[in-house]
């Protein structure tokens, strides 16, 4: 278990959470400004002997908070002062006052500062009990630099020298994924975790495995899951779509009936969603579909509310409202459905100003909530496949 503390959520916290989970570690994020709550959280983390504790924020403040919580002595680190002076000189900015330096350069006893690259606040590291403690500044680039240069090399170093790789695939049952993985090198340890058609594949290569074997195996896995692969790190499909839309400069809208806003909610779970999500409409009733998306009621009567035609009309209505990419969904989540239509049937439409409109028929199995989550995931995966062939 790795615990992360910060006063508020940030890109740095999101980055650490993503990287920690990609290493297969459990992660607990605690956000608070309450002095007592913070002290209780830190005490529980150390007493429980968690693997690591990351404290994100003003390094001087977190250092003082940590030291006071555990009754540790503190010292002024000349190394941090020198690093600050050199950074300010190279960046042609004014050196902080002596009062500020006194706050930023102090550390709990036995802790050490790291060199800083982005900003004059140095991250720091120490061990208390069984727990590795990292004091990290808010600057996302500095956090990433410290993670890649220090944390990943020390905290996640596998004792046997194994190399680990992660692949995320969508749309296959767990037994199908495992059956395909049986074809790869038998000396490679493999693990598959699946939920709602979303699977995480973890491959571990023994120490001293040749680069040729590693490369050939990774290439084989990419080829066997080519149509289903969406990430080579431990990212969710919603996170992948948000990053993709952000990189393309696209605004996305959703119109949902059977999923009741799950698609939009999954998008909003991720940092950067405000740059991507234009609007999310839960049009559960026929009246709402007609009023909000400009669909003629007679059109719904002619084709049926759960139909490819209505799904297509819903996505077209979203595009007319001003978004670049639109995804719509209509279907039966259960436990009952219309006569002659199975529970789990749904139609998903993905439209964009560049690619046109496409409709996909799907039939999901499971209970009501499982079907809804599968459908929401599928909608996001289809958005991804629309732009990444």
Q: Helix/strand/pairing class, anyone? A: alpha/beta
Q: Indicate the CATH topology of the largest domain.
A: Molybdenum Cofactor Biosythetic Enzyme, Chain A
Tally of separate domains: 3
Instruction: Note poorly predicted spans.
Output: none
β-strand amount: 15-25%
* Average of pLDDT: 91
CATH architecture of the largest domain: 3-Layer(aba) Sandwich
What's the short story on this structure?
The protein is an alpha/beta fold.
Task: Describe how the helices and strands are arranged.
Layout: E1 2-6, H1 11-22, E2 27-31, H2 35-47, E3 52-56, H3 59-70, E4 74-76, H4 78-91, H5 98-104, E5 106-108, E6 112-113, E7 124-128, E8 131-136, H6 140-154, E9 163-170, H7 174-181, E10 189-195, E11 198-205, H8 211-224, E12 229-231, H9 237-248, E13 252-256, H10 262-268, E14 277-282, H11 286-293, H12 297-303, H13 308-320, E15 325-331, E16 345-352, E17 356-363, H14 368-387
Parallel strand pairs: 1-2, 1-3, 3-8, 13-14, 13-15
Antiparallel strand pairs: 4-5, 6-7, 7-8, 9-11, 9-12, 10-11, 15-16, 16-17
Question: What report would you give on this structure?
Answer:
- The protein is 42% helix and 24% strand.
- It has 14 helices and 17 strands.
- The protein is an alpha/beta fold.
- It has three domains: 2-154, 3-Layer(aba) Sandwich (Molybdenum Cofactor Biosythetic Enzyme, Chain A), CATH 3.40.980; 163-231, Alpha-Beta Plaits; 237-387, CinA-like (Maf protein), CATH 3.90.950.
């Amino acid at each position: 278990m790795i615990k992360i503390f910060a006063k508020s959520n940030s890109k740095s916290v999101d980055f650490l959470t993503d990287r920690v989970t990609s290493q297969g570690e459990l992660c607990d994020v605690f956000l608070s400004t309450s002095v007592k709550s913070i002290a209780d959280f830190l005490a529980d983390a150390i007493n429980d002997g968690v693997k690591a504790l990351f404290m994100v924020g003003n390094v001087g403040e977190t250092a003082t908070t940590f030291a006071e919580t555990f009754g540790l002595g503190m010292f002024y680190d000349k190394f941090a002062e020198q690093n600050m002076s050199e950074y300010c000189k190279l960046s042609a900015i004014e050196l902080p006052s002596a009062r500020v330096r006194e706050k930023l350069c102090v550390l709990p006893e036995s802790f050490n500062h790291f060199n800083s690259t982005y900003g004059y606040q140095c991250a720091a590291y120490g061990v208390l009990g069984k727990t590795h403690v990292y004091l990290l500044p808010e600057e996302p680039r500095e956090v990433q630099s410290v993670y890649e240069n220090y944390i990943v090399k020390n905290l996640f170093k596998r004792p046997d020298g194994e190399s680990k790789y992660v692949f995320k695939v969508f749309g296959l049952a767990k037994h199908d994924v495992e059956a395909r993985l049986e074809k790869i090198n038998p000396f490679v340890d493999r693990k598959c975790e699946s939920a709602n058609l979303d699977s995480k594949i973890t491959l571990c290569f023994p120490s001293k495995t040749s680069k040729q074997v590693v490369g050939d195996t990774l290439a084989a896995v990419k080829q066997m899951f080519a149509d289903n692969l969406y990430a080579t790190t431990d990212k969710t499909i919603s996170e992948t779509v948000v990053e993709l839309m952000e990189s393309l400069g696209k605004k996305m809208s959703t119109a949902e009936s059977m999923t009741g806003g799950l698609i939009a909610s999954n998008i909003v779970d991720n940092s950067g969603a405000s740059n991507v999500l234009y609007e999310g409409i839960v049009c559960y009733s026929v009246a709402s579909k007609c009023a909000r998306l400009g669909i003629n009621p007679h059109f719904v009567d002619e084709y049926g509310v759960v139909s490819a035609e209505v799904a297509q009309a819903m996505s077209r209505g979203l595009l007319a409202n001003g978004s670049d990419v639109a995804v719509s969904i209509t279907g039966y989540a259960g436990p009952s459905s219309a006569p002659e239509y199975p529970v789990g049937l749904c139609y998903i439409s993905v439209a964009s100003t560049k690619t046109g409109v496409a409709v996909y028929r799907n039939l999901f199995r499971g209970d009501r909530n499982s079907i809804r989550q599968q459908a929401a995931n599928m909608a996001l995966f289809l958005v991804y496949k629309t732009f990444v062939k």
